[in-house]
Here is the input.
Amino acid sequence: MAPPGSGKTMLAKRIPSIMPDLSFEESMEISKIYSIAGLMDQQALISIRPFRSPHHTITTTALIGGGGIPKPGEISLAHLGVLFLDELPEFQKNTIEVLRQPLEDKSVTIARLNASYKYPAGFMLVSAMNPCSCGYYPDRNRCNCSVNHIKRYLGRISQPLLDRFDICIEALQMNYKDLQVQEKQESSEEIRHRVAQARRIQLERYQDQNIYFNSQLSPRTIKKYCKLDEKEQSLLEEAFNKMNLSARAYHRIIKVARTIADLDQSERITTKHISEAICYRSIDQKYWGE
Amino acid sequence: MDQMEYRYWLANLPNIGVKKIERLLDIYGNSENIFRSTNEELYALKKEGAFAEHMSEKDLETITQQRDIDMIHRNYTKLINNGIYFVSREEDDYPEKLRNIFGAPYALYVKGRLPRKQDKLIAIVGARECSPYGKEMAKYLAGAIAKEGIMVISGLARGIDSYAHQGALTVGGGTYAIMGCGIDNCYPRENINLYMEMQKEGGIISEYAPGIQPLAGNFPMRNRIISGLSDGILIIEAKEKSGSLITVDYGLEQGKEIYALPGRATDHLSEGCNNLIKMGAKMVTSPKDILEDLLPQYVENADQSGHGNIVLSAKQYKVYSCVNADPKHIEEISLLTQLPMEQLMEQLLELELRGLIRQTLKNFYCKEL
Here is the structure.
């Protein structure tokens, strides 16, 4: 969430550049979907991660798949890649709400009279939005939106959907100085290296389980793989009580903290990782214009 | 009909406003006499020029024709049964402060109770579309003032007004709302919780009878009651041309002290306040500035402002000293403190859990005042 022109879209488009290369199996899976959809374009195999960014006028059918003989929709075409929804509140409300179930199941089932079709939909959902319709809230020198207006704008996305985002950040308008930074920052190549490493750690950790990544942990396996020491436990407990977190938010925070620790190459989850994960937790509507 | 019903009748005559009622009372003394006046009497008075230009023939007709005793009785009983308290200038209960202002309303409708003679009231008003800074300060100042037993009076509008009421209620203080519509109509609707809550330790007051819609013209008028009932007016945020300044104008006319919260020179929402300060309003940077005027024996407790003595680590101190009432984004704080993001997040969370800072919006932090 950020004001216009602060780089939300640019940031989202760079996400595939830090994701690990496709394995052969993944490549095959994606190719199958694209082949069904008739999008192979003379290639033998799809070898780059999909990045789909449908326009906000998209219909529900185009998003989840459909038609007389259902074809895969955008969410299946983004399988193992990124589905980017720019200007999230501009989408039709029921269009984005249908994402809730595929996000949990990683697949979508479309039933027709004669058959029912199941397409994989294991995508990473990335979306961007402005904080209000003019885009500048809380800078009151530029934003004249009324509190109700702002509430209504954010209200177009339901809280259950917002809850499903693991990481939410509100970015700030860039100023001229930021654009002129000479400092060397971590390049995508280096980040990708770290991501690949974290992924290797996870594969190793979960080799005797049926899962690959932290995001697939169930509450039971969280207890096993995300052990927290007393200090971390008490921090989380305090945050849980004071911030009125839900059980879902609680588990999400632990999973995100585990991933941050993995990226940090740390075996233990420390308070630092927990704090960062809490900082990323999803937007709470209560923050808007109460 | 009893006395109250005559008064209720007089207050509800269509098109007979404050000035006409005042004139009639000057001549007849009380509402019962007006009710008993005859057609010929009134016309004779008009001919003599007793009403000056105030009364038209239609008005005289209204006074003599609209005397349905049953209906008046029914409506008045309904009012009382709805828990609405009706008070007119002919009673001793009518607030003394209001009696003396120009254009004082003839009657008031009250839910809850009227301010007592010894009660001190401070009006806190400001912009509807306020900034997070205005919001925090309104809540804080209202809370700090209400804690000392001073009532907060405002207009129940969105923005600053609501936050001022809220601030007073959270510390268990009394607060009054003056409505620009009928008293039974909670406008704006989203403030229904405040509307209900306020009636316990304060009240809702309106000069408009139940059922009157929130017309735009009513709102500047009710501002004279806000300022009239108060002992001082605090403006939190106002643009250069703001409705809150109408309250200030009334206040000056009525001889009230004006207080204003300063803002940055570049903030449009503080232009009105900064101008007021230039013109001689008292600048308010802490609740003390107001309390010392209203409570002669007021002494500031050492631990009253802020959180008393707090022990912070070096890093926490660095972070804490960067936040204030104007919410700052985490990136700004990071630039100011030069702390790497992951360390900063850890410090911020700890300060937040200790109740020293608060997130107003996602990733925007302000000091808990």
